[in-house]
Design goal:
The protein is 43% helix and 8% strand. It is built from 3 helices and 2 strands; from the N terminus they run H-H-E-E-H. Strands 1-2 form a two-stranded antiparallel ribbon.
């Protein structure tokens, strides 16, 4: 969320999301925020598993956020 709150000058996605969140809040609409608490390093054998990265694709597919242009599927 920090990246959306204070996006860097070159972080186009974070800038766009920041603008969208501000617009929605300005219209006094409800925003749902989903958070994942990382419980530390998870291993599968010798491999580190990033659960957040693994969940991201499915969350985007199921929730279809309007600002996610990369994850849009026809």
């Amino acid at each position: 969320m920090y990246g959306y709150q204070k996006p860097g000058l070159s972080q186009r996605t974070n800038i766009n999301t920041n603008e969208l969140i501000r617009k929605i809040l300005g219209e006094q609409k409800l925003i749902s925020i989903y958070a994942f608490v990382d419980m530390g390093k998870l291993r599968h054998g010798e491999f580190l598993v990033n659960l957040a990265a693994g969940l991201e694709d499915d969350l985007i597919d199921k929730l279809k956020p309007v600002w996610n242009k990369v994850g849009l599927k026809n």
